[in-house]
DNA sequence: TTTTTTCATCGTAATATTGCAATTAACAAA
DNA sequence: TTTGTTAATTGCAATATTACGATGAAAAAA
């Protein structure tokens, strides 16, 4: 029915899925990459950088912020965004543990 | 319009997003985890293991297969699935490169 | 104060995703 | 052949996501 049955999965499985969804869209990937590349707060140039309409970027930023992967500071009329280091490291741990499952001993067809 | 504007992003950004979407749903996370845990081909018990209806599981398996992350062998009336090792390693490389962007020197607010 | 700048929010349209009942397809077993 | 088993496919309903124009809010600039 279009709604994910989160209740039948573990918290870990739901967390992995939530984080993965965060960079499951190229616009959010591009936003995060830009924040890493600039390596400091970014005030306002994300719209021209990415090439989507301002409300669309704002929406993607909101999702990333809700997940805690970025934070935003108001500076006058503009807002400066940057990676939330601590939460990024936490997210990375969760995803890495999933990606690094042992595959070497797999006895497959 | 509900449709992602893939044409304005790089191939790398689109690839990261595609792979991330693959485990952006807890059912697919659970399927992959089970395949890793069993560490061999799995024939048929995924439906009872995960707890979703058979057509739903079949659909998630199809997505993972289309992305190349798993492969399926027909064995009589049943189908055996397992991780596609080589493609999994490739996917891991792509995601890791994205996750491991340097954050230490970030000069943030 | 008025205007401008910058970003968030609202409302809406288009498309995508999730989930399942019903059916079909392919094969094994009787 | 008929029956049973297993998994894919079809069709559909419900919900989620993506994108943007229009508008609103807040602060700086004139």
From TrEMBL, chains A, B:
UniProt cross-references to SMART domains, sorted A to Z: HTH_ARSR
InterPro entries per the UniProt record, alphabetical: ArsR-like_HTH, HTH_ArsR_DNA-bd_dom, HTH_MetalResp_TranReg, WH-like_DNA-bd_sf, WH_DNA-bd_sf
GO-annotated molecular function: DNA binding; DNA-binding transcription factor activity
Keyword set, alphabetical order: DNA-binding, Transcription, Transcription regulation
Every HTH arsR-type domain range: 8-103
Pfam families: HTH_5
Record-given protein name: Metalloregulator ArsR/SmtB family transcription factor
């Amino acid at each position: 029915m279009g709604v994910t049955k989160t209740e039948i999965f573990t918290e870990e499985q739901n967390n992995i899925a939530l984080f993965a969804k965060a960079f499951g869209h190229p616009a959010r990937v591009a936003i995060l990459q830009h924040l890493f590349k600039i390596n400091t707060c970014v005030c306002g140039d994300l719209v021209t950088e990415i090439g989507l309409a301002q409300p669309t970027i704002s929406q993607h930023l909101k999702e990333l912020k809700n997940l805690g992967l970025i934070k935003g500071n108001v500076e006058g009329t503009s807002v400066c965004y940057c990676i939330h280091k601590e939460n990024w490291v936490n997210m990375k741990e969760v995803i890495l543990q999933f990606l690094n499952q042992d595959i070497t001993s797999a006895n497959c067809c």
